Amino acid sequence: MPILNTDTEHDPNKILPIEYDWAREYYEAGVNNNWVPEEIPMQDDISQWNGDALSPAERQLVEWNLGFFSTAESLTANNIVLALYEYVTAPECRQYLLRQAYEEAIHTDTFIYCCDSLGFDPEYLYGMYDRVPSIEEKDEFVVDLTRSIDRPEFTIDTDDDVREFLRDLVGFYVVMEGIFFYAGFAMMLGLKRQNKMEGIGQQFEYIMRDESLHVGFGVDLINQIRTENPGVWTDDFGDEIRELITDAVDLEQIYAYEACPEDAFGMSAAQFAEYVEHVADRRLDQLDLPTAYGTDNPFPWMSEQVDLNKEKNFFETQVTEYQSGASLDW
Prior knowledge:
- With 330 residues, the protein is mostly helical.
- Helices cover 67% and strands 0% of the residues.
């Protein structure tokens, strides 16, 4: 059956025989990567946060990233449940969407755990969406991409409808999870490399492993819909998607410069801006679109740990790199 099936006679509850093996593999990899935040001790983080181990710039970086991710994970989960699940009717793809929704709940729980551990006022942490313009602009940019299919009367009947749906998928899988998350990942893991806030850093490592799978699934879902709906992905539409991605890079670079002042743990905001360009070129390449930047990766240790080479090699190797959260080896 097609990914987007409007045939009311089809029973989406019949998952066998599985048609999209790649979707099933993502589900199995997610299960093997299972973890919960309470597995990770936070006492050292609490001591550093309550002491003088962090500079004012480093404290701001932690606050802003926790504030952004705490709302972004909820936005992503809501999009899965309220928008995508209704229209993606292939059972094995729905199974993965349910797995991803669970992982987004784990990520949301992570920020509750961090907030409680560090003694944040929840209104302060979760209010950054309204208080910090660069965070608000990123979230609004993605939400705006879903306004069409979020209409109660939206249906997938025409090529234009499929394009609206693909625009939503690009917005959340490629832009939100595949670009907007990655400067924050690099910041928090860079801080961990300085032996600061290592508990939060480890949780971000686990989140990034999940997100690498989310991005891979989203890109494969987009490309499968393109294959099954020839003529929908026109040159003009490809240009539009490419422009969305480069606009997203501009927003993420603004955030990088504001969230990471120059004196933060020896890594410059300019390097984070370069990293965003590098990641964006990877996303464009995954969508068979021309790259835009040609920027080298300023943080090769990101790929060495869990980042882009896991995405690249996901189907080139056996899924042995993903283990249960309690036994992940870094």
